[in-house]
Specification:
Shape: globular
Bound molecules: 1,3-dihydroxyacetonephosphate, iron/sulfur cluster
Pathway: Cofactor biosynthesis; NAD(+) biosynthesis; quinolinate from iminoaspartate: step 1/1
Keywords: 4Fe-4S, Cytoplasm, Iron, Iron-sulfur, Metal-binding, Pyridine nucleotide biosynthesis, Transferase
Radius of gyration: 20 Å
Catalytic activity: iminosuccinate + dihydroxyacetone phosphate = quinolinate + phosphate + 2 H2O + H(+)
GO biological process, one term: 'de novo' NAD+ biosynthetic process from L-aspartate
CATH architecture of the largest domain: 3-Layer(aba) Sandwich
Number of helices: 14
Cofactor: [4Fe-4S] cluster
Order of helices and strands: HEEHEHEHEHEHEHEHEEEHEHEHEHEHH
Number of strands: 15
CATH topology of the largest domain: Rossmann fold
Length: about 350
């Protein structure tokens, strides 16, 4: 068993040895013990852009979750290998839409609406879903370009199918002035479309998926915060429920949240509704501001947290082995890339 110091020294040594042959991207939700070694940090969009731009690293050790590593593999060339330090670092939301369910939904929706639907998928989805979307003319979206991409899609077709996060889809559509009566929700458990009113008015078909971390921020949390700290600004991630986003002062991606707090006046007060590691880091980096988690119990993303310092070291020590390589099959990757590229040129 190595001590923390020994583990840290090992990472430093390997990074020095490999130089630009190694690239470590880190998502903002990663633990401090890991993020300190990231060559670049970012939200999902930035990490996808960086992967697409990086042509020289042979080894990309992705500190984030499975779908992010898949995206990096799709956007890099064949001689670049992408590693995920713990293969169990998935995303429960991405697992809420599988390809069979999506194909079943698509068939039923075509019967109902004909060829009037363009599929969009949040990047928090499997490569197979991205491939399905790419093959059907659609694109991926992230929380920082969802509005642009929904507008883009509704400029092409009358309707969209938005996979797999109902909250990001609903929040984005609502921000664009689309009414709740123009939104329906596909339930993959019952294979049924749930809607209110006239089905022909439906323009946005949401998928019944959600993030179990962000669903922990509630209307009650907002009310409690407002009661205790009337002057506090509330900023949340758009994976939170509609009611919470509506009551918050601001909503946006992880990078948006970071920048908003950086720009804020010293002495200002903030309650943040997003993953715990990021909230704690923002608190530490801004001792001049009063910052709390919108949910006082703090909400960790358990799968993001599977990537810890021992896993990072182990992964770096085994780059010549195939254990943790994320490799999307060429047929899937080719189609998924279409969906990702349609997003990247629009962002
Ligand atoms: P961002 O794109 O805002 O970084 O979000 C990624 C994510 O998984 C949020 O739960
Ligand atoms: Fe997935 Fe939610 Fe974790 Fe983001 S916070 S990786 S959406 S489970």
């Amino acid at each position: 068993q190595m001590t923390r110091e020994e583990l840290e020294n090992r990472v430093i040594e390997i990074k020095k040895q490999l130089g630009s042959r190694l690239f470590i991207p880190g998502h903002h939700y990663q633990k401090d013990e890991v993020i300190q070694f990231a060559d670049a940090t970012g939200d999902s969009l930035k990490l996808a852009q960086l992967s697409a731009e990086n042509t020289e690293a042979e080894f990309i050790v992705f500190c984030g979750v499975h779908f992010m590593a898949e995206t990096a593999d799709i956007l890099t060339s064949d001689n670049q290998k992408v590693f995920l330090p713990d293969m169990r670092a998935g995303c429960s939301m991405a697992d809420m839409a599988d390809i069979q369910q999506t194909e079943t939904a698509w068939e039923k929706l075509q019967e109902l609406f004909g060829d009037t639907i363009l599929p969009l998928t949040y990047v928090n989805s499997t490569a197979a879903i991205k491939a399905f979307v790419g093959a059907n003319g659609g694109a991926t979206v992230t929380s920082s370009n969802a509005e642009t991409m929904v507008k883009w899609a509704l400029g092409i077709k009358e309707r969209i199918l938005f996979l797999p996060d109902q909250h990001l889809g609903r929040n984005t559509a609502a921000d664009l002035g689309i009414g709740l009566d123009e939104m329906a929700i596909w339930n993959p458990m019952t294979n049924a479309l749930e809607y209110v009113g006239d089905v022909s008015k439906v323009r946005v078909i949401l998928w019944k998926g959600h993030c179990s971390v962000h669903e922990n921020f509630t209307v009650q949390n907002v009310a409690d915060t407002r009661a205790q700290y009337p002057e506090m600004k509330i900023i949340v991630h758009p994976e939170c429920r509609r009611e919470v986003v509506e009551l918050a002062d601001m909503a946006g991606s992880t990078s948006y949240i970071i920048h908003a707090i950086e720009k804020a006046d010293p002495g200002s007060a903030w309650a943040i509704g997003t993953e715990m590691n990021l909230v704690n880091r923002i608190i530490q980096e801004h001792p001049d501001k009063h910052i709390i988690s919108l949910n006082p119990h703090m909400c960790p993303c358990l799968t993001m947290n599977r990537i810890d310092l021992p896993h990072l070291v182990w992964s770096l020590e085994t780059l010549e082995e195939t254990n943790n390589i994320i490799k999307v099959s060429p047929e899937i990757a080719e189609k998924a890339k279409l969906a990702l590229e349609r997003m990247l040129i629009n962002s």
